[in-house]
Amino acid sequence: MSNKDISNIKTIDGGICAVKGVKAAGVRNGKYGIALILSENSYVAGAFTSNKITAAPVDHTKNTIKDGKISLIVANSGNANCFTGEEGIEDCKNIVDFSSELLKIQSGKIATASTGVVGRKMPMEIISPLIKKASKKLENSIKASQDAAKAIMTTDTIHKECAVQVTLQNNNIVNIGGICKGTGMIAPNMATMLCFIATDGKIKSENLKDSLKIAIEDSFNMLSVDGDESTNDTVLFFANSKSKNEIIDSNGEIDENFQEGLNFLCKKLAKQMAYDGEGATKFIEVNVIGAKTKNEGRLVAKSVVNSSLVKTAIFGEDPNWGRIVVAIGYSKAEIDPENISISLSANDDIVDLVKDGEILAYDGTFNLKKAENIMKNREIKIIIDLKQGFYSATTYGCDLSYDYVKINAEYTT
Amino acid sequence: MSNKDISNIKTIDGGICAVKGVKAAGVRNGKYGIALILSENSYVAGAFTSNKITAAPVDHTKNTIKDGKISLIVANSGNANCFTGEEGIEDCKNIVDFSSELLKIQSGKIATASTGVVGRKMPMEIISPLIKKASKKLENSIKASQDAAKAIMTTDTIHKECAVQVTLQNNNIVNIGGICKGTGMIAPNMATMLCFIATDGKIKSENLKDSLKIAIEDSFNMLSVDGDESTNDTVLFFANSKSKNEIIDSNGEIDENFQEGLNFLCKKLAKQMAYDGEGATKFIEVNVIGAKTKNEGRLVAKSVVNSSLVKTAIFGEDPNWGRIVVAIGYSKAEIDPENISISLSANDDIVDLVKDGEILAYDGTFNLKKAENIMKNREIKIIIDLKQGFYSATTYGCDLSYDYVKINAEYTT
């Protein structure tokens, strides 16, 4: 991942605590963890799984944020509190009430999120003490954001966070920071991911929602690890106005630089998740260009990044153009086989595999050695030109390795 | 797989050569193989991949069978002759012309099919001698059917064939026999499969087509190994009238027993493919009952059998109801979480995991040991009752193992 800054967007340290007025804490006990994120009286917007079975905390939080404001997020790892019936809803309420009493925050302003095993009851005897412990550690610090990011990890091997400082078009400065988790059951749309993003800009829930929707479209919704879609996916984006800088311009529009900053942050977090995909040895980016519509570009990109055969070929470091062609073919997008071009790229090196429908392997100029060398990199880009129009789309994913099978054959029971 | 005969349907030996008037042959040279199937002047129907990129032999055979009759099938393994441009079409014609001259059969009555690596040119210097060799071995025998079935294998570990003798409603007898191959890139709809089915009944192309369509629906179209859909899928069903027994009854309808026999045969072949799924250690059957519509039942069954997380759990012998619930949830079917029941079954043993939305693991009567024992079997059945209506659907698949990754990371280049 390039760390190059886009003008007006500067990556900074501190994760979610890079945002003024945000305190965080994280504690663990074995496979269970609790993260708390405190940001008094913040406007909030959320995005949730489209799975028809939703976890208790998803239903609870959807309801909580209807009023448009929250002050606290309580997130746990180790148990998804999903398919847990009435008792699951009760447990969710207990978590909120317990936190409310501890931190003197209205229950109605506490959102929850859970990740972990589905179909097991919440071990409240472990969760409650963890909340208590975390509540004493809340602070605005680099370490606090990291602790919170670590507390929500499940099969994640590294904690994930990002923060940017955005210079708005009127030269005022606001911060955006986020933490997230997610490595498996990550499918386009969304992921088994929890993601919490804060800003100290002044922006109300309605605009926050629009802004989040735009940012998610090309980041979390274009991320795939295994095609499974979780019951617990939750993205919460909240704004506490602490910088006093207005995000909405005089025309009532979201400041362009702010939107770019949020897009940048969400893509960074999405890429971190693809990097850390269960068992991943390679990060894969699929760039589709020349699509007839945005949606057609997405279909092709998702089809390729989701293909088990493409993923295993990349794990085997095999520049297998045939499997890429097959996945383009079943994507349901309008394509013309005779116009397709496919290239591989890594580390500023690029090699063409297919040019206007012709496989270059039979051309004397084709450099198989170079293609194989590109495949040895940790980050591989597949570039597909459909030559059907002017739209493009990018997906992020990872290879399918022995360790994906190992992790998922051994996890739980 | 039960070998129990359904009344009027008797499984018999001989594969495709159990059918009167059918000769077969198969030869191999390393990873390449040629199967020939000869059945003079037979009515024919076909079903092909819905991938938008189709192999040259698919295009060629679609065109050939338009006239409704074929005499010979030439199928090769080792190379898919797909994404091979003009030269691929030329190679396909050369195979037909070469076989035509050798066996004195009109070119217009020769169908072709290919399976193997996509995006590589046909090695005609290997293929032509194999055709010549096979042409000298054509015969109607148990061994000839087996040789043909073996010649089309790619990553298959066992050859696949089945034959049935059907007693029609008027007590006449006809035979149906088939061979097939396919282990990977097998997705609902269809599979990377080649399947050739013959009957000695009297039935014309139009009726053959209807009959095949019905049989495919609940067999090959409900089969999944890895969710990838091939460019080469081909099913050819042909009838040579050698038994002189009419399949169409006096009302112009397809004899019911004949249809049942064909359905039975196609399911048997589909199950053989799921058994032999790349790297498979377990055969999985998902039975969905109580669906609102047939289509909703299919959506749920396919979603569960395709889930990488369910597949790895089964590989790990973990009765993980949570992952089954998740896959039901994202199937897009109408469901009510509070009405779902899930059971596991193997070897006439059955254990309930979820009953009317309640996870039974927390019930004192739940027998985890029994569930774990069921998971140790080679054949596992997942039974899902949606309690939304009266439709049902069944899918066939397999687990996701280290060997799936190994086979696909190492295959080609």
Quick overview of this protein structure:
Two copies of one chain form a homodimer. Chain A has 413 residues and is an alpha+beta fold.
Number of domains of chain A: 2
SSE succession of chain A: EEEHEHEHHEEEHEHEHHHEEEHEEH
Mean pLDDT of chain A: 91
Uncertain segments of chain A: 187-191
The rounded distance between the terminal residues' Cα atoms of chain A is 36 Å
DSSP strand count of chain A? 15
CATH-defined superfamily of the largest domain in chain A: L-amino peptidase D-ALA esterase/amidase
Task: State the CATH topology of the largest domain in chain A.
Answer: L-amino peptidase D-ALA esterase/amidase
Identify the CATH class of the largest domain in chain A.
Alpha Beta
CATH architecture of the largest domain in chain A: 4-Layer Sandwich
Largest interface: A-B, 68 and 69 residues
- Estimate the global geometry of chain A from the Cα principal axes: globular
User: What is the helix fraction of residues of chain A, given as a range?
Assistant: 25-40%
Name the beta content range of chain A. Answer: 25-35%
Regarding quaternary structure, what we see is homodimer
- Please identify the structural class of chain A as seen in this structure: alpha+beta
